[in-house]
Amino acid sequence: MDYNENSQILKALAHPIRLKMVEMLMDDECCVTDVTNALGISQSTASQNLGILKNAGIVYPQKYGTKTCYIVNNNTAKEIINLLIKN
Predict the structure, then answer these.
(1) Fewer CB in 10 Å around end: N or C, the chain?
(2) Where are the chain's structural domains?
(3) In this structure, are residues 34 and 25 in contact, taking their beta carbons and an 8 Å threshold?
(4) CATH class of the domain at 3-86
């Protein structure tokens, strides 16, 4: 077990907005505009929190021209979210 990696994932998920983002991005990739509209947050808040998730290795950005979309690419984070959803 990689304790450092797992602690970074837990730190990144330790915020309600980021938990919602990860749950949303597990179903489908979304761009920042989709995230802001779905969660009712500003673009800067969405970008900042997506950056934290990206740095923790939870989401992966995919470029489509000038548009950047994100998708969850971390199985540990997916398992954590699935456990939380069940409760």
Answers:
(1) C
(2) 3-86
(3) no
(4) mainly alpha
Tokens 């920042």 sit at which residue? 32
Instruction: Judge residue 8's burial from the number of C-beta atoms within 10 Å of its C-beta, 0-12 exposed, 13-18 middle, 19 or more buried.
Output: middle
Q: Is residue 30 within 8 Å of 38, Cβ to Cβ?
A: yes
Indicate whether 87 pLDDT > 80: no
The 8-class DSSP code of residue 60 comes to: E
Helix axes 32-39, 16-27, angle to 10 degrees: 120
Distance CA 71, CA 58 (A): 8
pTM for the whole thing?
0.91
Catalogue the E-assigned strands of the chain. Answer: 30-31, 59-64, 67-72
